[in-house]
Amino acid sequence: MSTPITAKAVAELRQRTGAGMMDCKKALEETNGDMDAAVEYLRKKGIAKAEKRSDRSTSEGIVGGEIFNDGTSGAILEVACETDFVARNEDFGKVVASLVAHRVQSTAADIEAMLREPMASSPSETVEEYVKGASARTGEAVNVKRTARFDAGANGQVGMYRHHNGKLATIVQITASSADVASHEATRELLKYIAEHVAASAPVAVDRSGVPADKIDSERRIAEEQARQAGKPDAMIEKIATGKVEAFLKDVTLLPQPWVRDPALTISQLVADYAKKAGGTITVDRFARLQLGAE
């Protein structure tokens, strides 16, 4: 004998899944009123639809982020969809917020590992299932594309910048000479400025040690060939190439770059000035920059 399907049960299932009323009623009928089984039934339906959409282009979306643990940790996350209409939808914003909240709790090394974890806000499903459910509800492919999470430790601090349109976010980690210096208001202000600068200038590394050797070698070879084609004497080619490589490294690494707010100062000088205000020393450890649709 089948279990009667009540309006209350349909409403509860709809609340839990975001599926339509008739879909919820059918799911409960198919599972004889078993709420968990009905959720699984709808999830499977939703996932099947989502997987058909997974190969569509996802060039819109939101880059979310959050600083936590009193400023010693932070995470940013790029969640993509197909259209700006969905990206601006309040429900999609809630999906991104939920995924950021999960990333705050997750120490997964990469996206693949995070997708396999139980979703923080609904542990009965994985993050991947949650994302596919969001895809089913929006009718568009939804993908978690990239993420970065920094944990700075006792003498560290993390800062974040997020553009008002939600298309770009950066995160920066520093280490200070003491916990007091790390938590100083001047250090927090410095982090804000550096994160903003990274957003505007898009450096590839903190300093030259972070630039891959093969990239430097490539720049040197190009510079040497350009000098040869320009008819420069062999004795000058190496010097010219070295000068061009140095200029390249100053252009693409954070610390030598002119600060966007005051080009008379380099970021290295800015760090030194603010470290003095904070009463100690500060080292920029790393940064990440996520721009929607960029690689």
Automatic annotation (TrEMBL):
First-listed, main subcellular location of the protein, grouped into a coarse class: cytoplasm
Keywords assigned: Cytoplasm, Elongation factor, Protein biosynthesis
Annotated spans, Involved in Mg(2+) ion dislocation from EF-Tu: 83-86
Intracellular or extracellular location(s): Cytoplasm
Keyword Transcription part of the UniProt annotation: no
Ranges in a coiled coil: none
Residues covered by the Translation elongation factor EFTs/EF1B dimerisation domain: 74-293
Any one GO cellular component localisation term in the record: cytoplasm
GO molecular function: translation elongation factor activity
Role played: Associates with the EF-Tu.GDP complex and induces the exchange of GDP to GTP. It remains bound to the aminoacyl-tRNA.EF-Tu.GTP complex up to the GTP hydrolysis stage on the ribosome.
Family: Belongs to the EF-Ts family.
Protein name: Elongation factor Ts
Chain's gene name: tsf
